[in-house]
């Protein structure tokens, strides 16, 4: 389904009935990375899954895509769908956007899931790497980013099927979209000062082998959040929802049921 916002077409999928759950995907993927969660949740929840600007079947205007802009896109989508409150699940970049949603549209949020993400901003070195990767994708296209990133996105033991899925998702995106998100993530603010104010129920999930946003980051967020639960998913790297879907879904379901 499509929503037309000023200057951009946003693609999204919606399935099921019940309380609303919004799934915000990681970089440089698309809403399709959540298929196993949609399958598990749709019996009891109304699941809304956008392709964030620059990804999947959404438009990829020139960047940078600020996390605030992406959060405003999600808020506009919820308004269009008549949703006044939802649980928001953000994995990695999706988590950065969830922090912006909290700052800008917190009335829309009833619960948060922060999966394999971090509240801290990029270091100067991290920002320089983002810019180098943006230039790389503009020069050589998405396959160069896929080759560079996939080894870090999953645990060393991740099977070839998962790696192939990631390759397909990344190759289907555009260079402009990938570069726009890289430059936007580099500009994201520090969300650590907001953690103490996040008083809604929050679930922090991390793959035990996540090397991009390691368990120590999740533990630090959990300590700073006043109303949070921490779940570590054994045998998963950064993309814990794809690598260990049963454990990830069980964590979501018991959190939502509570
Ligand atoms: C992601 O999975 O969304 C990215 O690893 C986030 C990032 O590069 O900071």
Describe this protein with a few key phrases.
258 residues; globular; binds D-malate; eight-stranded mixed sheet
Summarize, please.
This protein is α/β, with parallel strands linked by helices and 258 residues long.
Produce the secondary structure layout.
Layout: E1 2-5, E2 8-15, E3 20-24, H1 35-41, E4 46-50, H2 67-80, E5 86-91, H3 93-105, E6 109-115, H4 124-140, H5 142-153, H6 160-171, H7 175-186, E7 202-207, H8 215-224, E8 228-233, H9 240-243, H10 245-257
Parallel strand pairs: 3-4, 3-5, 5-6, 6-7, 7-8
Antiparallel strand pairs: 1-2, 2-4
Helix pairs in contact: 1-10, 2-3, 4-5, 4-7, 5-6
The protein binds D-malate (MLT).
The site of D-malate has 7 residues, from loops.
How can the largest sheet be summarized? 8 strands, mixed
Mean pLDDT: 98
Broad shape: globular
Specify the helix fraction band.
40-55%
Order of helical and strand elements: EEEHEHEHEHHHHEHEHH
In this entry the ligands are:
D-malate
| Separation of the first and last Cα atoms | 31 Å
How much beta, percentage-wise? Answer: 15-25%
Class of secondary structure makeup: alpha/beta
Q: How many separate helices? A: 10
Write down the Rg. 17 Å
Which residue ranges are poorly predicted, with pLDDT under 50 across at least 5 consecutive positions? none
Q: Which sequence of strands runs across the widest sheet?
A: 1-2-4-3-5-6-7-8
**Count of DSSP strands:** 8
